[in-house]
Amino acid sequence: MEIGSHSMIHRRPTNLSLSHLSSLSLSTTLMKLAELLLQRVQLQKDLLDQAARIQLNAQVLEGEEPLEDPELVLKEYWATTEELETLQRRVQDINVKSSYDETRTMSHALVRREILRKQVQTLSGILATATANSRYSTKDIKRVAALDVPALREKLSFVKKETQQMDIQIQKRNWNIEVP
Asked: In 3D, which of 179, 176, 159 has the Cα closest to residue 114?
């Protein structure tokens, strides 16, 4: 979203609350954790939108009026942060109590997935550096990889596959875990 573009500004309806979103859930009886996570994504988007609206209206030319009252949008922002905090706590409580597999909770699985993602990022960066061609002409000193590039590529492939499998399993679990 461009800050200067007034037509791109999305305003969060003031009557849309977490309880209202809960009633819009796909499940007719109990909400699933995945639905709660979708609400979290929406609240995070709302916060970004509200911050952009506050910044857009935080300062105006002398004698001009802002497009909307930044104080009201700021109040909306604080209310949304409270909703998000409440929802985050709820998600955390559910993840601590829910099993991912026979030996791990969802919380443990999420920590593992985060570590795997960091490993993918780091290995990708190392491989990019180790395989970069920094020699511009045949007269320049040739730089060579100091690491076993094929072994690193194999490890990266393994870690990516494990990350993908965890992502799939976590998504499946999210749609099976009922929210009390």
From this structure: 159
Question: Tokens 């730089």 identify what position?
Answer: 143
Single-letter code of the amino acid located at 1? M
Buried b (16+ CB within 10 A) or exposed e, 105-139: ebbebbebbeebeebbeebeebbeebeeeeeeeee
Q: Is the dihedral of CA 141, 147, 148, 149 positive or negative?
A: negative
Can you say how many angstroms the Cα of residue 12 is from the centroid of all Cα atoms in its chain? 20
What are 4-23's pLDDT values in tens digits? 433 334 444 444 444 444 44
Task: Compute the CA torsion angle 23, 26, 28, 30 (nearest 10 deg).
Answer: -80
Amino acid in position 5: S
26 in Cβ contact with 35 (< 8 Å): yes
